[in-house]
Design a protein that fits this description.
- The chain is an alpha+beta fold.
- It folds into two domains: 3-125, Rossmann fold, CATH 3.40.50; 141-166 and 175-331 and 349-364, no CATH class.
- The protein contains eleven helices and 17 strands.
- The protein has helices at residues 3-19, 44-54, 75-83, 92-96, 116-120, 122-125, 128-144, 235-252, 280-286, 337-343, 345-352; strands at 27-33, 58-64, 86-90, 108-111, 148-151, 157-160, 175-177, 185-186, 190-201, 212-224, 227-232, 259-264, 293-298, 307-312, 315-318, 321-325, 328-329.
- The strands form three sheets. It has an eight-stranded antiparallel beta sheet.
- The radius of gyration is 20 Å and the shape is globular.
- The protein starts with a helix and ends in a 17-residue tail after the last helix.
Length: 369
């Protein structure tokens, strides 16, 4: 068996057996965008379909057009989703509807491996069950912590705690694959500042234009609870940020300066090889799973908001435990982390050699151009 075929089979088993909990004989609906949309690799849906057939699944491919604004599935698609044992979205519609209850069946999966290289890498091949357990350990540590502090080299510094020990919401309406992020942390008991370099961009909810605005220097975003209270930096960047927030808010009739949650990547094999500026939409929809990135959901009260604020190389301290250290996640510092790594060798290997590529531009920072 060639290395390529072996990797395809391993990734397919991971998504269909470990994530979907499927079995041979089940039906699989693959919802994909047209090949010329430029977001998902046009070869990916065919690659996954053939691998699924080899594993004994009955596969149906269904092509949809991309819609920049959120729309309900068509009656034809809704019927196919309801009939299938499993549905896999290789289309942004899945991401757009991930917080919309009853819009798509809970057994649906959205793939954040958006091209063949990502699907064939350890990003998609490392055991889904291991990352599900890691996510649980991280969330338990957040709940137990009396004080959570986040900093970054650019100047981010905020702190707080989980109110009532509860996360704001979870992605319960579909499954993420690969599992590369923990549930969003509600912002209401946090305050401080966020340092943003390069740009502000969208969240993958609505696809407005322009999707990103330029920041030439470091912009400091002050917040208290759910409110952005001000911007600090060059007057040009402050004006750019305010204009962008007001533009997006006016378009969708939402609160521009509302922030509701944040979370960071947990998958060290998530890599994004091209500068974010080449395609902000693809970057914001795929790179976030790397532990070097932490992002906030802002602009609008409905998850996930419309503007993403991105922190590079965060350090996250839970009481006295530094779990993220300048963009490096240390599972062994979590209670039960050592045992988890021992039980999932592929997980341990991924953390021993984490991907560094997250779409940075010149001077190893986020850049608009």
């Amino acid at each position: 068996m060639s290395e390529l075929i072996k990797n395809v089979e391993q990734a397919a088993k991971n998504i269909l057996f470990n994530c979907a909990k499927g079995q041979a004989g089940d039906t699989l609906l693959i919802v994909h965008e047209a090949c010329d949309e430029g977001y998902y690799d046009p070869k990916l849906h065919g690659l996954v379909a053939e691998a699924a057939k080899t594993l004994g699944f009955e596969v149906t491919l269904f092509e949809i057009a991309f819609a920049p604004d959120i729309k309900d599935p068509s009656p034809e698609l809704a019927a196919k989703l309801a009939a299938a044992d499993h549905s896999l979205f290789l289309a942004r519609l899945g991401d757009q509807l991930r917080f919309q209850k009853n819009k798509i069946p809970a057994r649906s999966i959205i793939s954040y491996a958006i091209d063949s290289d990502m699907f064939l890498s350890s990003f998609a091949r490392a055991d889904y069950a291991g990352f599900a357990e890691l996510k649980g350990l991280i969330e338990a540590a957040f709940v137990a912590a009396k004080r959570i502090q986040v900093t970054c080299p650019a100047g981010t510094d905020f702190s707080g705690s989980l109110q009532n020990g509860e996360f704001e919401h979870s992605d319960i309406y579909l499954k993420r694959f690969p599992l590369s992020i923990f549930n969003p942390v509600p912002i209401f008991a946090f305050s401080g500042c966020i340092a943003q370099n390069g740009f502000l961009t969208g969240t993958g909810s609505q696809y407005y234009k322009p999707y990103a605005c330029e920041l030439r220097d470091t912009l400091l975003i002050d917040f208290k609870g759910a409110d952005i209270t001000g911007f600090r930096g060059s007057q040009r960047d402050i004006s750019s940020a305010q204009t962008h927030y007001e533009m997006v808010a006016k378009k969708y009739n939402i609160d521009p300066y509302f922030v509701h949650s944040w979370h960071a990547g947990i998958h060290p094999a998530c890599r994004f090889d091209h500068p974010a500026s080449e395609n902000f939409e693809r970057w914001s929809g795929a790179a976030f799973g790397n532990p070097r990135l932490l992002h906030f959901h802002s602009c609008g009260k409905i998850p996930p908001g419309e503007i993403s604020i991105n922190v590079v190389d965060p350090s996250i301290r839970l009481d006295d435990a530094l779990i993220w250290e300048k963009g490096v996640l240390h599972p062994e510092r979590l209670r039960g982390g050592d045992m988890l790594l021992a039980r999932f060798p592929d997980l341990a290997r991924a953390f021993q050699n984490p991907a560094k590529e997250i779409g940075l531009g010149p001077a190893e920072r986020l850049s608009f151009s």
